[in-house]
Amino acid sequence: MRKKPNLKKIEKRKFRNKEKKTDRIHYPLLIFSMIFFIVNYMFFEDVTLGHDRRYVMYIFCLPLIIGLVFFGIYRREFLIKTYLSFKETYAKIYVVGFYLLQGIVVSYLSFGQLANVMWSYLNKKEAEKNKIEIVSCNVGGFYTKKNPHVFFKFKNRTEVLKVNSETNRKNYNRNPKDYQLEITMQKGIWNYYIVKHWELKNIR
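Above: the chain sequence. Below: its structure as tokens.
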């Protein structure tokens, strides 16, 4: 007589098949989110100056927490089964850490990115209502290595503006004390400003 298939093995097989189908849906969405993030950051995101705790709380932390809770509930069956499949304590700690980190990344690429795009849109609309301001800031220094930029103080906080390769070559032989940044900007939401234009001016 044939032995009846082990119920646990059948359940495991069903679970694996279910996960494979789920992965086929998730991976394209993840790739799309990553591409959208890169394209938005490279070509569409405004250059801004300023800082406000409300941005950190409501646009960064809150969507991240909501995303973690959402994906935790959505994937609870998979997470619980994966956690219980390990007996060693160190393995369980690794599983928790690994999927927590994965959850943070996925939450940022989905909920975090959505919140940031919405905020950027509202910030731009608010800035368009306000007058154009021109401010001059003393240059604090030039960073000429990887990701070159110029840094300066604005409203008692250190800010940076990226420079292109041509400007970076010139900055090699420049003394920061001889230059000021003239920045054209418009005030947006909270304490953030959208940079419309900027240039280095020799003050010596």
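The chain is about 55% helix and 25% strand.
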